[in-house]
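Please, structure for the following, as C-alpha cells.
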Amino acid sequence: MKTVEEYLHFLQSKGFQLREDAIGFIYFGKNYTNASDELANAAIELTLKVQKSFDGSFYVSLLETLVSNEISSRREAVKFVKEKLII
C-alpha cells in the first residue's frame, strides 16, 4: 500500500500534474476525515475517474461519504461508488 505522498508521485510519473491547491485539498480532506492512506488514495483515483480532473470539493465530499459509511479499503470504495451509481 502506498502512502498519499507515494501515490501522488506515482500519478505524476503517469502524467497527472496536480496543482499545489489540489494537493492541499488532498491532505486537508485526509486529515479532516481522519481517513487512511488507502482510502484517501482510492478517493483521489475515483475523483479523477469521475471528474476527468481533480475536483477538490468532490474529493472531500466523496472521502466524507466513504468514511461515514465505514468503507476502509480501495476495493470497498470502488464497489460502493458503483453501487451508488457515482460512476
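The mean pLDDT is 93. Residues 4-83 form one domain.
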